[in-house]
Amino acid sequence: MGRDNWTLTPSQIANGIEECIQAAHDLYVSGVALNYQKPQPIARALLILAVEEYGKIGWLYRGLMIHPEPGPEWADFWQGFMNHAIKNEIGRMMLMSGDSLLPALTPHFREGFPFFGIAPEALERHKQGMLYVSYDAGRRAFVGPRDDFAGNNIDNKVLIDEVGDIVRYVARNREAKVFEPRVLEEFHRLNMMARDEPDRYALLRLFYAAILRKPTGLEAEVPYDAVVANVRARYPGQVDGLVERWSAIGEQLAA
């Protein structure tokens, strides 16, 4: 069976996110502990792996934007899920997210990210160098992780701080109920309703206002009545039921 048949339900994605949060946190804690015990190259590799594991959370959230039927989008999804460079990019995007929670950030995960100063592919090679002995043809010598670490005057403090920021970003999302199975189900519903990007962002504003009860972090916040009116203009026969459904979920989550 090809990967285009490996579909996921919102419930499965919710379970996957919880597993990734735990695994990423374990890698982060282990990396910090090892750093102060002095096997610093291995600590650095674990911290980079933690970034990737946190990146999986964003990529799984992106899966909620894919139609549930088998197809090439699912094959692309699984290729990305197993791609270290993509996961690293998404983890690092969380550092640049500001106050924006994952539902507003996720649509951007479908695009390329050419603005990073250090290419994720370079970080992947760097991570491998922190774990394994390699042969440097230029120097005609074997190079171990400790040699590479010392030779490049690497300090893990910046990376520890950056992963700590990702930890706090994920915690803010959890506090906002972003990972709740009902929220994931409705984010999926939103994306299946949207016919284009203007539709998606109109629905996203209502999703934030009614369910999450948080600012979107988009350019300018819009009054609630204007948010509903915008969705009504696009979905005149569905908006009242949607508002009722999403408001009820928001009340339950806030209780």
Task: Give a description of the structure.
The structure is a single chain. This protein has 255 residues and is mostly helical. It is built from twelve helices and two strands.
Total DSSP helices: 12
In which order are the strands of the major sheet placed? 1-2
Q: Spans of 5+ residues with little confidence (pLDDT < 50)?
A: 113-117
Q: Helicity level, as a percent range?
A: 55-70%
Output the structural class.
Answer: mainly alpha
What is the rounded Rg? 21 Å
Q: What gap, in angstroms, lies between the N and C termini?
A: 44 Å
Instruction: Give the CA-based shape.
Output: elongated
Mean pLDDT: 86
- Which strand-content bin applies to the residues? under 5%
Q: List the helices and strands in order.
A: HHHHHHEEHHHHHH
What is the strand and helix layout of this fold?
Elements: H1 10-37, H2 40-62, H3 72-81, H4 84-95, H5 102-105, H6 120-131, E1 134-136, E2 141-143, H7 145-151, H8 157-175, H9 181-193, H10 197-212, H11 224-234, H12 239-254
Antiparallel strand pairs: 1-2
Helix pairs in contact: 1-2, 1-8, 1-9, 2-4, 2-6, 2-8, 4-6, 4-8, 9-10, 10-11, 10-12
Characteristic terms for this protein:
255 residues; mainly alpha; two-stranded antiparallel ribbon; 67% helix
Task: Give a brief description.
The protein has 12 helices and 2 strands.
